[in-house]
Amino acid sequence: MSPLAGVRIVDFTLRLPGPLGTHLLAEAGADVCKVEPPGGDPLNVATPLWPEAPAMYRALNAHKRVVRCDLKSEAGRAEAAALVAGADVVVEGFRPGVMARYGLDYETVRAKNPRVIYCSLTGYGQTGRRARRAGHDLSYLAETGVLSLLADVGGAPIVPGPLIADTAAGSYPVVINVALALVARERTGDGAYLDCSMSANLEPFAWWARSNGAASGRWPAPHSDLFTGLSARYNVYPTKDGRHLAVAAIEPQFWTAFCDAIGLEGSARDEAADPPATRAAVAERVAAFDSAHWRHVFTEVDACCAVVDTVEEAYGGAGGRLPALQAPLAPALRRTGEG
User: Fold this and answer.
1) In which residue ranges of the chain is CATH 3.40.50.10540 found?
2) Is 136 a catalytic residue?
3) How many CB atoms lie within 10 A of CB 179?
4) 310 — phi, psi (to 5°)?
5) Which CATH architecture has domain 231-308?
6) Which runs of consecutive H residues, i.e. helices, occur in the chain?
7) How do residues 108-119 score in pLDDT, each as one tens digit?
8) pTM for this prediction
9) Catalytic residue among 136, 241, 260, 296, which?
């Protein structure tokens, strides 16, 4: 039996963070009804198509029923109110105060549905000086210091491909907190209000940097700490063919296995004596062979090392090294006024 079978969720979120969270809840068996504006979710017009519908939209909204209604109209608000009146969970991603203008805020919904679990997902939470500010993944990373820990060889912040704030600090906290609230409701019978802030949920990503900085007064910078590129044991090195080898041989047994595998000898193994020299020696050995060689070597050697795959190599159908994503089912679409 699916763990969330019988749980009814009404989803008022768009684009990525909320829809991915409710998608994961749907994958766990929840019945998710996604409420979209008359023009639909902005991702529903994004390319490429897969096979005939927008790929990104379908990947996030599989297994959901979709209702399009205009919350700015009386009829649309009435339909939405009827949906939330019978919901176990409501998830919304508007700026603070918007759902209240529509008469769909937590207090209004709870008055008719006291067991409801109501989750608001925003960039900065419901209160505070930044609560009404606009933001996106990159700006949340910048303001929380996380982006400063993602730097190129020159120390400049990079644009990370994965949307870390949206997914890891948005979608997953929605799933975790909704699941915990459902467990609590089973025990107490009470619903809950969940205030999920993506910027606040980024704080755990800098746990080591914050704790080390507070304790020592030496705050992390690019290439100054284990996890920011100082160590030869935790780094990325170019291979002969222009690819890269990711090395995470932190523990002594893995470092010894790694050094043996690449043929690193003598004093270069003693990273503590001269970290730059060890990094240079490792880089020289890795650059002597192409990525196919290192892929073969570290398939056999247990040293926490791997060639950096492209997304296509990792997931690209039958040739991928990980399970390929299957085309999700197209969501059933119903517009306001349709049966």
Assistant:
1) 8-204
2) yes
3) 18
4) -80, 165
5) 2-Layer Sandwich (3.30)
6) 17-27, 55-61, 74-85, 98-101, 106-112, 137-143, 164-166, 172-188, 207-216, 252-262, 275-286, 291-300, 311-315
7) 999 999 999 999
8) 0.88
9) 136
pLDDT digits (tens, 9 = 90+) for 50-61: 777 788 999 999
Catalytic residue, chosen from 31, 105, 137, 166, is 166
Length of the chain: 339
Tell me the pairing of strands 305-307 and 244-248: antiparallel
Distance between CA atoms of 126 and 100, rounded to whole angstroms?
A: 12
Q: Kindly report, residue by residue over 14-44, the tens digit of the pLDDT.
A: 999 999 999 999 999 999 999 999 999 999 8
Tell me the fold of 8-204: Rossmann fold (3.40.50)
Q: What is the DSSP letter of 93?
A: -
Range(s) for CATH 3.30.1540.10 in the chain?
Answer: 231-308
- CB contact at 8 A, 262 and 287: no
Output 334 or 215, whichever has higher pLDDT: 215
Give the ranges where 263-337 is alpha helix by DSSP (H).
Answer: 275-286, 291-300, 311-315
Largest interatomic CA distance in the chain = 77
Strand 31-36 relative to strand 8-12: parallel, antiparallel, unpaired? parallel
- Whether 166 sits among the annotated catalytic residues: the reply is yes
- Asked whether the CA dihedral 76, 78, 79, 80 is positive or negative, the reply is positive
On the CB side of 252, CA atoms within 13 Å amount to 2
